[in-house]
Amino acid sequence: MNRLGPEDYQSNRHIRKIMRLAQASKRDVFFDLGCGMGKLCVIAVKEFGVKKAVGIEMHRGRASKAARFVRDQGLSDRIEIWNEDYMESDLGEATVLFCGHNETEEDVPHFEDALGNGSRFVSLFLPFVGVVPDAVDYPFYLMKLPFKKTEDGSRWASAVLTKKAEVEELYRELDTDREYRYDKRLMGRLMKDRFGGV
Ligand SMILES: C[S@@+](CC[C@H](N)C(=O)[O-])C[C@H]1O[C@@H](n2cnc3c(N)ncnc32)[C@H](O)[C@@H]1O
Question: In the chain, what are the domain boundaries?
């Protein structure tokens, strides 16, 4: 799947929504998984006072641009930009994370393994399939570690749609979210694997 997308995706208002949903504060270390030009890290530090932010960006040119942006803001002592694949990164220090990418099959076990209990993961558009979100401010979902997993599709669908619903309804409703590019076949497969059918 192409996970490149635009380097500067979330608006500042959306970035603030992400930080508020996670209740980011000076006690936190914020990680942006796929940071593009690094704007989330800058807002996390400047407006929410997180003690440190790390932006991980695998595209070399974007990572250099992000590092330059951080330097220009005079924030190099608080923000690190790592030019690597976040699936290979050491995320042990993270207490708040944002990732705007579609889920892949390995994400849930990977992040359960890589993240400490109590850390807060914010996703865009959907929570991980079968993980019940702790809070929702659409299009963002907050999932605290350890993840609250369910095999009950209607419990998950109801939490995602914030109304009583079955997985089939959620699956149909995905088509109304025209803004977000996602792989509906992969979503269908994940839902089938985790709930036994769509
Ligand atoms: C759509 S941009 C989002 C930038 C910023 N987080 C925002 O929301 O405004 C996603 C970025 O993630 C990067 N990316 C995709 N997969 C990645 C991976 N596995 N590790 C690190 N960066 C990745 C892409 O190169 C791209 O710059």
Answer: 12-150
